[in-house]
Sequence to fold (224 residues):
Amino acid sequence: MNAISSMDLTGFTEREPGVWTDDRGLVLSVHFFDLVPDLPAPLDRPDLLRHGLAVSVARAGAGLIEAVTGEVDSVPAVRQLVKVRRPDGHGQVFLGSWTVPRAGCSAVVKVQAGEGPMTGLREALVLDRVGPERYFTPHPYGPDVTGGLPYHVGDHEEWDAQFPDHPLTLVRTTLARIAPTVVLQDAFKAQPPFSAPAPAPAPAPAPAVEPAAPRRWFRRGRSS
Fold:
């Protein structure tokens, strides 16, 4: 199924089916997955969903910047912004996506861009302005979200206007521009809604074992 029928591709050039690029280094792609979405919680439980996504992204060695629920073409969806290390270890790649899950499939619109030769400028300037004690903060989606790339305020949207050419800014603003123009296929929209699988029940406690009667350690002596 081709889940997406159209969207605004102004400024993008198609490189291969389902993949477009622009002159700023952005890569736009669309995907259809014909399997049950692996989201950790239903979209109507956003706190649980965000926490599960943050934990899984951290375990993969990356960092979840933000996750919010919303709609794409009137269908419930979740938007994620993620940062990952470049394969060569030099700088980061930022990925923004809208995932539209249905009961047995999903559609994804993704925008990504990587840092160029100069890396860390945004982070260094924000750190200098706010100070180290305010720069690194616990992850807002849960105190147990640890590992992966660190969470910090330099990735917040409030700094985008001061760094208009930063890849995170480009990804965030481009995704915000394109998402409202996405038109989904009627056949995809007609699929049953997504419902995360129920968590596996906790194992039943082992039955209590009655302690064995203590064995006598002496022998009764023979009578003479």
About this structure: The two ends are 97 Å apart (CA to CA).
